[in-house]
């Protein structure tokens, strides 16, 4: 626990939180349950192999043969890559290797190439694309996303808060309000921060068109100079803007209680709006069109228009226009 003094001699307390707050528990010394199971299973298999080969194989020869296996399994159980265990990383790599790399939205199925296509050309094309299976079934009229067996979800856009410019007391109040919302959660919730490309060309065109109507030549000159600056900035830089989303889910796939689950997830968005208002975070539930646009943008970013500067000026309500 550390104490930081602000210019007003106010005291703010900060507590270090581990980066991996979901780290599994240690049950056998520094080993987790998964690591203990892998090492115990490997040791048991090697011991059974030794018992089976002891009548006709010298112990040193057996140790030399199984040493690479023991080393690999130890590295798999104790090693980590990108914040996850090597065993999970290897399984994820294997699943990625076996999964199709091209998917299409084709509920009727993806037909293969006609028989008239030569085999050489068919080999160059590669494997047939697989059918894209979306986790969401549909977006209801209320803006709730039907996730099928996984229940229902609702999405809301959130504004951001400049935390560093606040005094110690203000930081404590914001942190306390946000903590109260976290403690009030009754179901799964996710805070998603996404980056989008920013298209400032409409703003540049608007400045160029409205500059001649300004009441003073100096203002016109300043507006045109700013438009030129923005145009050069967009030509030499990849401009991005951020979007903060709040997603709450009700894991209730029962058909008989579907309407109740959909209403409950909307009510949780309303509760989050009231609770986060104390932390000076403006939360706005998305309507069906905005929700569908967010899903489309997430699954296929290149098929939507870039966000315009005017859209990015809203408090978290940043949505691309659909083609």
Model description:
This protein has 323 residues and is an alpha+beta fold. Among the domains are: 26-98, no CATH class; 138-200 and 239-312, Alpha-Beta Plaits. Helices cover 44% and strands 18% of the residues. It contains ten helices and 15 strands. The chain has helices at 33-53, 59-78, 86-98, 119-125, 168-183, 201-210, 217-236, 258-277, 288-299, 309-312, and strands at residues 2-5, 11-14, 26-28, 31-32, 80-81, 84-85, 103-104, 130-131, 138-139, 145-146, 152-158, 189-199, 240-250, 283-285, 307-308. Strands 9, 10, 11, 12, 13, 14 and 15 form a seven-stranded mixed beta sheet that branches. Strands 1-2 form a two-stranded antiparallel sheet. A hairpin with a 2-residue loop joins strand 5 and strand 6. Helix 1 runs antiparallel to helix 2 and helix 6 packs antiparallel against helix 7. The protein starts with a strand and ends in an 11-residue tail after the last helix.
Essential attributes:
extended, seven-stranded mixed β-sheet, disordered C terminus, 323 residues, disordered N terminus, 10 helices, two-stranded antiparallel ribbon, alpha+beta
């Amino acid at each position: 626990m550390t104490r930081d003094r602000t210019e007003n001699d106010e005291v703010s307390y900060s507590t270090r939180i581990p980066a991996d707050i979901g780290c599994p528990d240690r049950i056998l010394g520094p080993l987790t349950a998964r690591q203990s199971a892998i090492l115990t299973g490997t040791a048991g298999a090697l011991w059974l192999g030794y018992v089976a080969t002891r009548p006709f194989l010298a112990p040193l020869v057996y140790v030399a043969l199984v040493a690479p296996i023991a080393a690999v399994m130890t590295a798999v159980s104790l090693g980590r890559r990108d914040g996850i265990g090597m065993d999970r990383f290897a399984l994820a790599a294997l699943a990625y290797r076996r999964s199709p790399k091209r998917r299409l939205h084709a509920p009727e199925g993806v037909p293969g190439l006609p028989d008239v296509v030569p085999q050489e050309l068919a080999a160059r094309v590669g494997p047939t694309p697989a059918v894209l299976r979306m986790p969401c079934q549909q977006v209801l009229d209320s803006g709730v996303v039907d996730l099928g067996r996984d229940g229902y979800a609702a999405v809301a856009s959130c504004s951001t808060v400049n935390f560093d410019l606040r005094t110690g007391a203000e930081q404590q109040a914001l942190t306390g309000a946000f903590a109260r919302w976290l403690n009030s959660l009754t179901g799964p919730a996710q805070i998603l921060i996404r980056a989008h490309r920013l298209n400032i060309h409409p703003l540049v065109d608007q400045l160029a068109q409205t500059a001649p109507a300004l009441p003073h030549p100096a203002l016109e000159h300043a507006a045109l100079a700013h438009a030129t600056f923005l145009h050069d900035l967009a030509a030499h830089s990849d401009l991005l803007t951020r979007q903060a989303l709040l997603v709450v889910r009700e894991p209730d796939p029962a058909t008989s209680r579907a309407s109740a689950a959909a209403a409950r997830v909307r009510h949780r968005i309303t509760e989050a709006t009231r609770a986060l208002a104390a932390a000076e975070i403006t939360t706005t539930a998305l309507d069906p069109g905005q929700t569908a646009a967010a899903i489309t943008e997430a699954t296929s970013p290149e098929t939507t228009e870039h966000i315009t500067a005017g859209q990015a000026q809203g408090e978290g309500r940043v949505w691309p226009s659909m083609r």
